Amino acid sequence: xxxxxxxxxxxxxxxxxxxxxxxxxxxxxxxxxxxxxxxxxxxxxxxxxxxxxxxxxxxxxxxxxxxxxxxxxxxxxxxxxxxxxxxxxxxxxxxxxxxxxxxxxxxxxxxxxxxxxxxxxxxxxxxxxxxxxxxxxxxxxxxxxxxxxxxxxxxxxxxxxxxxxxxx
Length: 168
Prior knowledge:
Elements: H1 2-29, H2 37-55, H3 59-62, H4 65-92, H5 96-99, H6 102-133, H7 136-158
Helix pairs in contact: 1-2, 1-7, 2-4, 2-7, 4-6
């Protein structure tokens, strides 16, 4: 049990310190859409590292990990591209309520949701073979680490993203 507690504490400390930095960076630059690609890569690297460390994969499970890591990184990269696009649209719009076509807004939103859904599906498909091989203990650690990482990232994003993309 102490091993689990140590992993949980490390994950929590690593996540909160990096996310505090990200929150400071985003608040000083005007929002998470302004985080640099390097900052986002760093956050993704930490997320991947925390999850992998928490799982303590066996050698056979390690063989299934690259697909999961690739899916996590692809999803993060696509998310960064969406955030950059939103920032560009926001910067270029003087009065979006009067100058935007509502149908175009809905179409752009639908396209973003489709992309997010496709990314999430790829991630789930990548996780499935590995998840089937995890012990009950590994599944519990994965659940906890995923919650801590996603909750921390969600808090940073929630406080700095535009309402239009609030479910990302």
